[in-house]
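Quick check before the chapter quiz. The format below is the same one you will see on the exam, so make sure you can read both the input and the output lines.
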Amino acid sequence: MNNLTTPQLFSRYALPQMVGLLFNSIYLIVDGVFIGHRLGTDSMAAAAVSVPLMEMLIAMSIAIAAGAGVSIAGQLGRGEREGAVRVFNTAFACALTLGALVIVLGNIFVDELAVLLGSTPDIHADAVAYMRYIVTFSPFQILSFLLSGLARNDERPKLAMFALAFGSCSNILLDWFFMYPLNMGIAGAALATALGPIFSVLILLPHFVLRHGSLYFTWVHIAPREVGDMLALGFPSFIMEFTIGIITFVYNAAIVRWGYGELGLAAYLVLGYLMLIFLTLFLGMAEGLQPVFSHFRGTGETAREKSLRRFSAWVFLAIGMAGYALIFFFGEYFLALFNPNDAELLAFMNARCKEYFCLFPLAGYALLMISYWQSTRQTGKALIVSLSRSLIWPPVLALVLPAMFGSEALWLCHSISEAISAAAAFIILIVSSRREQK
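Here is the expected output.
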């Protein structure tokens, strides 16, 4: 990192993770396309019920990876390799334990979980069938994101990108195979989604098993305090990633509450796929920059740290504006990919797409600042903004705005939430900077 300019650092670390996560989003989208074409609107609604669950698994994995990554990058920056190896193995043990718990509890309470996440009587059987595959194969989902995150911190961002991309591409092929030649229905779509991460794990494991970097597998004593510190550091990342799942859960419930029914759920699934692409661009870049911010904080390179933060903010804003322009002018073509023969669904989505995304270009700034503060151990600031854009404003706005201005106001709530959170991040940064100057 020492000889790289700010743009070079951004390109080396932010872009590969963005590409890797983008492929992960694409395979979820292709899954939806196959389901819409092969099985119809109700099956799309059933798959939508599992989206918050999958986002929760990804969020828990990224939380462990981010918490471990902040510690590992700082220790490697200071030359403390043994400490970094200990944190790596502790994180891996935590991920395995989490995966085992999800398998057991998820299969026991799968019916109740489906109802909690928004299934209706008409789609409940398909929702449960889809969800059962997700929880059974959850350890691979968790490990794929954990190992890719730790590979980035071990200076292998391109390996992490390739592993995630390969797993995503394999899922696309499996989607077609299970749903068309084998005619497995919604279970085939779920099985393809569940198997994809296995390939990512198989690609990443040799790096650590064969000791190609600073991190490798060895036996360590798991210290509860170290686990607690790691999870505390990673908690803002959990909230940041799980925001997609939380928002999906909130809006699934709100869509049913305000009378949109299965049509609204199916439409929101497709809008959610488009949202996933939008936010994945930001999330991938923000997560990719974590090792760099943590390294600079560990080595005391404050000037380079601030330079990268400012440069990244402008890049995030530019990408956000370009993304909304694409949605504004070409969004209807994306929406038509999923169920082109359902004129009612297409009309419903087209009428709400532009307003749903109108303030999304500002979302990137909040995500960047969450990652920056977390990477530099300013966890409180990261947590405030993370909670603002997930647990505070989305449910409040989804409850209040439709009640005040009618049900159509529901489709503006997410954009308004992102704008408020970005403003909060900017205010916190300005106040903190002024305090540091005194």
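If your answer matched, good. Residues 261-299 form the longest helix (39 residues).
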